[in-house]
Write a structure and sequence with these properties.
By secondary structure, the chain is α/β, with parallel strands linked by helices. The chain has 12 helices and 12 strands. The longest helix has 22 residues. The structure holds ligand C2E and magnesium ion (2 copies).
């Protein structure tokens, strides 16, 4: 099959003049598992679609891994609404501390899909699928309402754990719902202070439709809700993004902390990045802090907020509240 595909590709190329058409092939080798011709060609299509954006690959055979991957994707699409209704989608909270005092001054809300049969599905697996199928806003509306209603109750009960929570958003959310209006509606409905909630937008979300996203960020901030940039330094557009967008705080990507003991490159980048961010007037937070050495180093650079396994993993809220009643001073 392969020589035939390559030969066809060569012939197609020889017929082209100014235009550049890429030929891709998907192959399903008949193994008797499905008998229907349409399902066989579907599998070939699926194999072909999986290499659509891979410019260096000409063909792909359908295999069990691809089948498994697709089945998981289908599971996510088919079961989201039910998972939300049954509360299989839960919100875990990871503490954020002030580096100088070690005191918990915030939480990040992170979703977990805990399916009774499949176990825990992590956001890295389902967020991109929900984005691709334009279903992400269903998850996000749920997360915003759950977080706001929960923290409204805590604040009213005078609990000291009711420190601000940051909620992650996806770029696609902005295309489907009006985030500023939705947040305002919820704040009104639950009669809670807007200072208690921050929204996180990843740096990569700013690459498409920048003018529109800038306007949306501005609207949210004008309502008094703080907007944080997530994963700073993980993409290619970082520095221009700092110049062109208004953020209240920048979360520095955890990759800079990796290989801390191999060489000093990460440390040098962190030192200059934090100093630059401060000069630009942004508050700073380092995420993914896993050791005391990393914590001490970031504190010495004046990085204001710290988040990471060294402080605490994302956990259900009750567990987080229990943990923060312990003496956090032990981390500083
Ligand atoms: P993120 O917002 O950058 O969140 C940080 C991720 O790093 C979380 O992964 C967290 O569990 C993990 N993490 C925290 N501390 C450490 C550490 O010390 N070491 C290491 N290795 N990892 C650490 P998680 O919960 O799997 O979430 C992954 C990503 O999924 C998040 O990255 C965020 O972009 C996205 N996400 C999570 N919840 C939501 C949501 O409700 N909506 C949207 N749109 N995205 C979400
Ligand atoms: Mg985040
Ligand atoms: Mg992050």
């Amino acid at each position: 099959v392969v020589p035939a595909i390559l030969e066809v590709k060569k012939q197609v190329k020889s017929l082209q003049q100014d235009i550049n058409l890429e030929l891709k092939a998907g192959v399903y080798l008949y193994d008797g598992e499905v008998s229907n011709v349409i399902r066989c060609t579907d599998r070939a299509h699926i194999a072909c679609a999986s290499i659509k954006k891979k410019y260096d690959i000409d063909y792909k055979f359908y295999d069990a891994e691809l089948g498994g991957h697709l089945a998981r994707k289908q599971f996510i699409i088919d079961n989201l609404v039910e998972a939300l209704a049954n509360k299989y989608i839960q919100i875990y909270y990871q503490p954020i501390v002030r580096s100088l005092t070690g005191e918990v001054c915030g939480w990040e809300a992170l979703v977990r899909w805990i399916d009774p049969n499949k176990g825990t599905v992590y956001p890295n697996e389902f967020i991109s699928v929900l984005e691709e199928y334009h279903l992400i806003h269903k998850l996000e509306c749920y997360v915003m309402e759950e977080v706001i209603s929960t923290f409204a109750k805590m604040e009213k009960a005078g609990m000291r754990e009711a420190v601000p929570v940051s909620i992650n958003l996806s770029r696609i959310d902005f295309e489907i719902i009006d985030i500023a209006s939705y947040m305002n509606e919820l704040l009104d409905k639950y009669q809670v202070k807007k200072e208690l909630f921050h929204l996180e937008i990843t740096e990569s979300a700013l690459t498409k439709n920048p003018e529109f996203i800038r306007e949306q960020i501005s609207r949210i901030r004008n309502c008094g809700i703080k907007v944080w940039m997530d994963d700073f330094g993980s993409g290619y557009s970082s520095l221009n993004v700092l110049k062109n967008y208004e953020f209240d705080l920048v979360k520095i990507d955890m990759e800079f902390l990796r290989g801390f003991d191999v060489n000093d490159n990460g440390k040098i980048i962190l030192k200059h990045a934090i100093s630059m961010l401060k000069n630009l007037g942004f508050h700073t937070l380092a995420e993914g802090v896993e050791t005391k050495e990393q914590y001490d180093f970031l504190r010495s650079l004046g990085c204001e907020l710290i988040q990471g396994y060294y402080i605490g993993r994302p956990v259900p809220l009750e567990e987080g509240c229990e943990q923060i009643s312990l003496d956090r001073k032990s981390v500083v």
